[in-house]
Amino acid sequence: MDISKQKKSIFVAGLVLLMLVIYLISTREDPALPNIEPSFSNKISKLPDFSEIADVREKKETFFNTLYPAIEQENQHVLKVRAALEDLQTVPFEALEEDQLEWISNTAEYFRIKDEEVSKDTLDELLERVDIIPPSLALTQAAIESGWGSSRFSRQGNNIFGQWCFTKGCGMVPSSRDAGKDHEVAEFSSVNAAIRAYIRNLNSGSAYAQLRDKRAQLRSADKDITGISLAQTLINYSEE
Questions:
Q1: Strand partners, 164
Q2: Based on the number of CB atoms within 10 Å of its own CB, is 167 exposed (0-12), middle (13-18) or buried (19 or more)?
Q3: How do residues 138-180 score in pLDDT, each as one tens digit?
Q4: Can you give the pLDDT at residue 25?
Q5: Residue 107 to residue 34: CA distance in whole angstroms
Q6: E strands, the chain, where?
């Protein structure tokens, strides 16, 4: 065989191998595992100046219309992660691949599950934590905590949910902070980041286990997960 024919044979063989690899990847039963923290799209860098809106009805409509798409976007991503978890749960645990186990471990860490080793119980616990927060509930809490976007913390730090942080310099010091307290009100790079932190907080904080239990019951009974149904579980967030 001359050199040109030999090169051609090698090229064809390589092409066939490449096509086989692409085929195997594209026909894998397991979908690509989603990023736990994707980049923000339609980023809201700063809230509108609600003080300039004199009409109360217009102010409320603008508030809801500004926040709802971002809340819905974050919920859709949560559902994408949840769907991946549900797919993995259908696979015998001992048959899961290394990259799948690593993804489960990273997801568990993100949602503050402190299992020393990933197990089937980790997946079960994740499915209680990785779920939506109804937009009606999130919007209501944002309105209450931010005074319809007029609070200093929402205007200066995009903190529409009044979330605290506990590292010195992590946020803004509230003027009404009691003596001996060291918490600050967190600052966020965008409104989207505040929404993501709020959803993660409710989905992972020990204070909100009752919310997650109630939500899991509703989902198990194939009932709608609504703000009304979950509001009473958030007494530890706000008495209001």
A1: 185
A2: exposed
A3: 999 999 999 999 999 999 999 999 998 888 878 777 767 676 6
A4: 40
A5: 10
A6: 164-165, 171-172, 184-186
Residue type, 85: L
Single-letter amino acid, residue 65: N
**The token pair that represents 31 in the structure block:** 């979908």
Nearby residues of 225 by Cβ (< 8 Å), 6 or more positions away: 131, 132, 134, 215, 218, 219
Distance CA 178, CA 3 (A): 84
> Residue 139's closest CA among 195, 83, 82, 197?
195
Q: Please tell me the chain's helix, strand, coil percentages from 3-state DSSP, rounded to the nearest 5.
A: 60, 5, 40
Query: Which residues does 52 contact at the CB level (< 8 Å), separation at least 6?
Result: none
In the predicted structure, residue 99 carries a pLDDT above the cut 80: yes
Place of tokens 């004199």: 54
What CA–CA distances, in Å, run from 211 to 86, 107, 236? 20, 20, 10
- pLDDT above 80 (res 33): yes
Say if pTM beats, i.e. exceeds, 0.85. no
Residue 133 and residue 202 in contact, taking contact as beta carbons nearer than 8 Å: yes
